């Protein structure tokens, strides 16, 4: 029995962890209990020294002093304030009015608002529930196909996993030992590409099955001019002017920013994009304020509404990401700035109350404590796991896989995909990632690329029946009984669970395609990262050897010359004669 336990210690540890998780106790305590139990077993069997856990208190204090994880409460607080202050409702109403007149316009609005909520709230549950409560009744009221409506809402809500500033990316960066700024920069293009895939799918549906995604009827369009015009012409003109300003900044970005940052290398593309969007957003907001204050009447009601509702959260996002990408602020400082900006926006909207502030602080403290306890539990587990050479055992599991890096990544993605249907991304990040990251690094896989692939994979698992969390969130707020619509008075049938599951399938396929695209094209993640000057290690070592040899030869030459001077009697006599002549003078 003792020999069996000794030879199969690591597999037994995983079996013990599974047992504790199946008992229903919190994951953090299950991890810690597994680590402590098997640590004591190993010490009793003589596998580990008696002082195995001697450094554990220092590790716990190190976790509590981790500056990277401090960004989590700031971004969480920012998201809760924005979500509870009614931003989601205003965004969905306004963007829906902009795109509503065209087929599929409401679905397009849901995707765009979902992307914006992802970049502000960063929480899947908040995004799915908000859009389920607000958008789903409207889409059902005007005859949207139910699978398209439910699938669009659940898929758009999961964008919070992959679009910066995502809590998932912060945790992954910490666990992979990489910069949060690099993780944000690496995830930006894949996240935007995924939004583009969603929009393209809706356009295709509008062309192939136009009856599935009807436009808003004229009576539902609430922002009209006195002349009866919709106001879209003014909005397009403002958009073109701001786009021109953003393009102008993009062309001048390097000449302005490189001297200020004392940088000689080309500016990263994500930095140029973010700051160009920031300039365009500030211009739109400034023009709208001038138009209202001076009563110029240059902007339509729709253009003004879009500017005052859409631009402030965009400016906040771009400022946070821009300062992080420029290196002006750390992610923690960027999160603090975002939290302050959210408070200012809530005050400006007259939605900030003591009750809202208490709720935001309470939820932020709960989530931060939840993350901290899981991290402490995973640290206890990793103590025993690493002492048992668990990382070597994991390496041996993957070293015989065919396909090298790609084979490893495919197997890992399948594992994470399945786990994501059962446990939250925090548990995956703190349990699985520390085990797999050393293997990935040893295989030469860029860990930023690895982290972005896993983030998009975990997003996919949120949609997968029967345990996808986003599906449960929508099920909790979708009508489970027939009801009378309060606007039209029509009898609306209930939304079934089968319709929600069916709606997610097309978007799961889109997400799997994007995971495959990122997996086979790592330059989408790493191609624009600032890697700094590249150094050839062999050339650098040879140069150091040459410099050392030259310095040694110079010292030997000086020593030889000095010794020769001291040993030459003729030279000594001449020097003495010169000295006597100097004295006579």
Automatic annotation (TrEMBL):
Q: Which domain of life is it from?
A: Bacteria
Put simply, this protein is called TRAP transporter large permease subunit
Ranges of compositional bias, category Basic and acidic residues: 547-558
Localization, per the record, is:
Cell inner membrane
This protein's GO cellular component annotations are: plasma membrane
In what residue span(s) does the TRAP C4-dicarboxylate transport system permease DctM subunit domain sit? 15-523
One Pfam short name: DctM
**Membrane topology per the record?**
Multi-pass membrane protein
An annotated Gene Ontology molecular function: transmembrane transporter activity
Q: What is its main location?
A: membrane
Q: Which PANTHER family match?
A: SIALIC ACID TRAP TRANSPORTER PERMEASE PROTEIN SIAT-RELATED, SLL1103 PROTEIN
Q: Where are the transmembrane segments?
A: 12-31, 68-86, 106-136, 148-172, 184-208, 229-252, 272-294, 306-328, 334-352, 364-385, 405-435, 447-474, 500-519
Q: Where is this region: Disordered?
A: 547-585
Could you list this entry's UniProt keywords, alphabetically sorted.
Cell inner membrane, Cell membrane, Membrane, Transmembrane, Transmembrane helix, Transport
Q: What's this chain's function?
A: Part of the tripartite ATP-independent periplasmic (TRAP) transport system.
